[in-house]
Specification:
339 residues; 7-stranded mixed beta sheet; 7 strands; alpha/beta; homodimer
Amino acid sequence: MKTMNTRRFFAAAFVGLAVLTSTLARADDPLPSWNDTNTKNVIVTFVEKVTTEGSAQFVPPAERIATFDNDGTLWPSHQMYTQLAFALDRVKALAPQHPEWKTKQPFKAVLDNDLEALGAAGEKGLVELIMASHAGMSTADFEKIVTDWFDKARHPRFKRPYTELAYQPMVELLEFLRADGFKTYIVSGGGVEFMRPMTEKVYGVPPEQVVGSTIKTKYEVRDGKPVLMRLPEVDFIDDKTGKPVGINKFIGKRPIAAFGNSAGDREMLEWTGAGSGARLMMLVFHDDAKREYAYGPANGLPDTKFGTFPESLMKEAKKKGWVVISMKDNWKRIFAFER
Amino acid sequence: MKTMNTRRFFAAAFVGLAVLTSTLARADDPLPSWNDTNTKNVIVTFVEKVTTEGSAQFVPPAERIATFDNDGTLWPSHQMYTQLAFALDRVKALAPQHPEWKTKQPFKAVLDNDLEALGAAGEKGLVELIMASHAGMSTADFEKIVTDWFDKARHPRFKRPYTELAYQPMVELLEFLRADGFKTYIVSGGGVEFMRPMTEKVYGVPPEQVVGSTIKTKYEVRDGKPVLMRLPEVDFIDDKTGKPVGINKFIGKRPIAAFGNSAGDREMLEWTGAGSGARLMMLVFHDDAKREYAYGPANGLPDTKFGTFPESLMKEAKKKGWVVISMKDNWKRIFAFER
């Protein structure tokens, strides 16, 4: 009995110690979903450097601007952009009011689930779909449509609401930066008013820190009440060279850290890197077909229509010291629901 | 002697008490440059109402958005808009590189100081002047040009830098609101990049909280360094119906308080007032020719080209409960330098 008790005692003590150690480790670690690789170390070192008063690379809080692309950087951009899934669902929902869509492209392609015909409609077709599904209502009505859609829509592979698909390591990174006085912005090619209804809840980013593409709106007084009507006209495309333009227009400060995942983020990272002082530029690389997706075409991975990471971007990253995040190697888990 | 001592004692005590009382009053009073009128009371009551937890009209900090017009609301818009004075100075500075301007309107009018010919050039002429003086350089170069101009330029009447002409009561109001958890924005018809170099210093409003008119910019890599070049093309006019559009685009939340002074602010106040819950809409009325300027044409004051306050706006203000601030009656002092 004595031996048993001793063994029990040691076993209990060991379990207790293990729990304690793990709790302490988690408490100390602002990025628990990141593997302990150099990539994680680069982030922590950068933040220490710019937040340590007296350090040569100290950056005052007002200048601690960090910008994040959304699709493919904070949540999946596959099997298609979330906003495109929304547009297709909207076109289907609106189809009864548009009998002409049965025979008119690109709408016919959507109603027939004919992805090949949809692809053939190209960018022009895409803009037509966006305008038909995103314009013609007030901003308040659009917000409700988007919110309702996020409540009901499910990702075809993960069978969960899109709002549960934020990359957990990136959510931790956003929180880590904010805890250190950073102001975190989303700078996305996606529509501002498509993102705003969910960014606070999903990423902790308030509406006024969402930079993105916009369509024109018009102020009108209807039945004595002012409304902003969404017009079927592009106002601004916040992608590629548009990203530095959007950052300058909406924020008016150059970021000291920028995070992207595709050719659409190249100029944002260039613009960020061209400032003086400590900088952090990172690109999420989708190399994890098992847990998420794998595409490039960089590093010999398959090409893609959504969020291309070309070899030229990989080369530029290496040349300029941008850190490429391997989802497979650097992320302990990808989604919060994994455990 | 005894009598003297007693009198001295009382005199000293009285002075001491007076100083103490005045110090206490000032310490308690967040708006010392406002006269103790109902207007001041309306502001203080509104702020108490929306910031008292448990109150029916409590507004959480994230929703405490206050928007301020700039010209005529936070600083003078007479004798002309500050940005127009800048444009005219720039045209004169650039004239040696443009010999053709000597004979070409509206430039000739500027070089001849011919305000009548300038007026005849109308809005089209104005846009030409703005484009010639505000475009063709990088955003960084423009910022330097603006900063240098603010250092050197003096207001023709007050003989001081424009940055010293902020209305002290409005600066106190901005600070009062921020101390109570409000996020204060400028929403001006003026150019964003003309205002940003001075708003933090003058109003405590950081660059990312300046909404205004914009011209297009283009991302380019010059000598290996990325720059944003300012193009001679209007991107967005943040005036009249443009103000709610700009508020929605840049902030994405409806203000609960809005401050203006002219017909250009009407829609911003309508949009703010159309939200539910406690609201505060105010208009600065320039009725103080002695200390600043007096114009309307509302209330029979002279008409003006800069910051018109028409009778119809006065009527709408009365009908909708917008508070009209009389500079003459409501403001103890107008500028910080007054004493």
